[in-house]
Amino acid sequence: MTAQNQLLVPDTVSGEVIDLELGMGTVQFLPGTLTQTMGVNGPLLGPTIILQQGQTVTMNVSNQLGEPSTIHWHGMHVPPEADGGPHTPIAAGDTWSPSFAVLERASTHWYHPHLHMHTNEHVVKGIAGLIIVRDPLEAALVLPRTYGVDDIPLVLQTKQFDADNQVVVGDALDTHVLVNGTLDPYVDVPGQVVRLRLLNGASERVLNLGFTGNHAFHQIGTDGGLLAAPVQLTRLRLAPGERAELLVDLSALQGQSIGLVSFGSELPSAIYGAAQPGMGPGQTIPNYTLNPLNGNDFSLLQINVGPPTPNPITSIPGTLAVLTPWAEASANTTRTFTFTPVNMGPTAIQGPFLINGASFDMMNINFDVPLDNIEVWELTNQSPIAHPFHIHDVQFYILDINGATPPPNMQGRKDVVLVPAGMGTVRFITRFEDYSSYDVPYMYHCHMLPHEDDGMMGHFRVLPQDAGLSDDTALNGLMRAAPNPALTFWTSRWTPPWAWARSPSRTSRAA
Ligand SMILES: [Cu+2]
Questions:
Q1: Distance 200 CA to ligand 1 centre (A)
Q2: Domain span at residue 389?
Q3: Cα–ligand 1 centroid distance for 451 (angstroms)
Q4: Into how many domains does the chain fold?
Q5: Cα–ligand 1 centroid distance for 137 (angstroms)
Q6: Cα of 140 to ligand 1 centre, how many Å?
Q7: Do the domain assignments include residue 358?
Q8: Cβ contacts of residue 98 below 8 Å, gap of 6+?
Q9: Which of 12, 145, 407, 437 has the most crowded CB, counting CB atoms within 10 A?
């Protein structure tokens, strides 16, 4: 193995006030012309935000891109006004300053733009960063947690560059593999138990992760925090938007190297990344078969194992967190979501895709959820390609996938789940707690970013339980006070805020 570039490890930021500046930049990815990029506090990606459970944080997001964007705190349970979805655009030159309490468990989340129809462009050009939440329960466990030493953040992405080295948005020739924005990376780590925090930050590609030599590892965390106990694996499928925390025991490999690989040759059909992206050979995506990553194994990261640190972690804990999934019998509501392609036949897998027969409509809230409702969401994929479904506001527990109990490593808290193609079903259970708003909805969508941008998305409001849930029109016009005292920037208003996006002036913003 001969990786050429030392892995970039993002800086960290923490505290009560965090300043994030979105801006343009350039990066020398390839010989010749510099690549135009977007980044946060730098030319590419963003710093890792480290938060403590129970703290309050104000994020000052300054938009210096010269065009609107948003920042969404993916996986975090925050008020809808602070969530950074498409209804909360930050105009060019503006600063958006949401405040919220950190209610998460110890977990690995991420932040990225969510501007309708531009999410893929802004993410693939470089805006994404990790969020690490710490809590006392995690701190009491014997786990690696020295950032950049034995606790390594890994943002896994693929990109396409054109002949002039510029990032191509929304094509299937994402032939370049980057980790933390580094092409062909290596990292030096100590010979002990090391923690890897993985994010699939690719626009579309599903990864089938493992190590060279089939070196076993333990998954300890899912999207929303630690599992009940470590789960030993040799492969981990990670879809766009998903995170995983792994422990890898490298103590026997001092002086050697090991590779983090995506075993794409093992992916079944009807998943982006497999040899066959649809269910049959007639179903195609333009250029897909020209991309050597599809259906093949490829290296993500070369890991060079050196001597251990002075006080190394040398064992895997027996237990981790206490998980308390809701009983299915406690659900108040079951909602069904059906995914269908707009086009039938061989081009079906190219999209666009619909959810319950509809494309995303900014001005039409899909439904309202009563605050504190416990709900089962039943997802059925009537399209011939798997879709990673993501919901904002909450973490959920998977009840079943195609009728079967999920494997142990998927029994933790989740906010993204890959729904199998060809009438595949997933059911999950969740509760909509703490935050409600008449004005700003939460999103649910496919996390394959071209699918999302093409309208495979919907939005729902969480409303106080005393609200007249059937009368959306009347509620839209009401002036309401903020439900949460942490929202110091948010007092009341009577204009639905998503109308701002089309307004020539922001002076109508009541505050
Ligand atoms: Cu999709």
A1: 15
A2: 328-478
A3: 5
A4: 1
A5: 35
A6: 39
A7: yes
A8: 58, 59, 61, 78, 79, 81, 82, 84, 487, 489
A9: 437
Residue 133 lies in a domain: no
CA of 202 to the centre of ligand 1 (A): 13
Taking the centre of ligand 1 as the mean of its atom positions, its distance from the CA of residue 342, in whole angstroms, is 12
Q: Does any domain span residue 469?
A: yes
> For each successive 10 residues of the chain (511 residues), what is the average pLDDT?
87 98 98 98 98 98 98 98 97 98 98 97 98 98 98 98 95 95 98 98 98 98 98 98 98 98 98 96 93 98 98 97 97 98 93 97 96 98 98 98 98 98 98 97 98 98 76 37 33 39 31 28
Strand bridging mode 107-112 / 129-134: antiparallel
Distance 460 CA to ligand 1 centre (A): 19
DSSP state of 477: T
Which two structure tokens, joined as six digits, stand for 317?
């804990």
Between the CA of 64 and the centroid of ligand 1 the distance, in Å, is 30
For the chain, helix, strand, coil in percent to 5 are 10, 40, 50
Name the one residue in this structure whose structure tokens are 């080295």: 165
CATH number at residue 445: 2.60.40.420
Tokens encoding 156:
């896994």
Map tokens 């014997």 to a residue.
142
Residue 382 lies in a domain: yes
